[in-house]
Design goal:
alpha+beta; 3-stranded antiparallel beta sheet
Amino acid sequence: MAVSTGAYWVTPPSVLKNNLGLYSKQLLAAVHAVAAYVGQKMQNEARMGAPWTHRTGNARDGMFFAVEGLGLPPIVGVISGDVPSLGSQADVVEERAPHGTLMLALSHTMYYGKYLELSHGARYAIVVSTFEGNLPVLENMLKELVR
């Protein structure tokens, strides 16, 4: 009969379950933080690269990002300057992340933001191009996170 020449530790199932639960929570918090980092990056890029002529600065200063979901508190980018709040606009739509998902948004606070994005053949659009330009950054950061 062979005799074991070493010692080894077997993690009890209850400890393993608790550790996996903790790891899951930490991973979701890290994904949330990565999304907030990329959201802030997108907000800064959109404000700097906005192709329209700034008259009041409200459209530029009112661009913001938001991250919501995974059961964590939402993170919203800072709206700078003296920009009117979103609640004062009748055509504002508020979105919520469905259960178990994460939502990253880049948007305008000014009611005419949709016209900047959609009219004149989208000549003044900045949101979609900024978002698309940062998707590879987001993807790479998330891949590194789970690696």
